[in-house]
Amino acid sequence: MPRGRSTFNKRQKEHTRQQKQRDKAERRTQRKQDKPESAEVDLMDELRQAAEAQAALFQMASDRAEPEGSDKKPTG
């Protein structure tokens, strides 16, 4: 039983669509595998830098507060 030209074209088109879908899924999984390593390191670096900056700010604030607090004499 011979198949018509449109049936052949439909089969080819569907085959191409499925192949593109597989390729896209493969690229997606590849990106997921590659991304966490570099992103995780960058994120940890950013968090560490932010923590250091915040600690420096708290240190400066406590340094400023100590002389004022030590000048006061206890009332009693």
* Structure class: mainly alpha
**Rg (CA only):** 32 Å
Order of helices and strands: H
Work out the helix count: 1
Unreliable runs = none
- Principal-axis shape equals rod-shaped
Number of strands: 0
What is the helical fraction, as a range of percent?
over 70%
> Main sheet?
none
Distance between the termini: 110 Å
As a percent range, the share of strand residues is under 5%
Oligomerization category of the chains in this entry: single chain
The average pLDDT is 81
Walkthrough of the structure:
- With about 80 residues, this protein is mainly alpha-helical.
- It has a domain at about 15-65.
- It is about 90% helix and about 0% strand.
- The longest helix is centred in the middle third of the chain and has 67 residues, at about 5-70.
- The termini are far apart.
- The mean pLDDT is about 80.
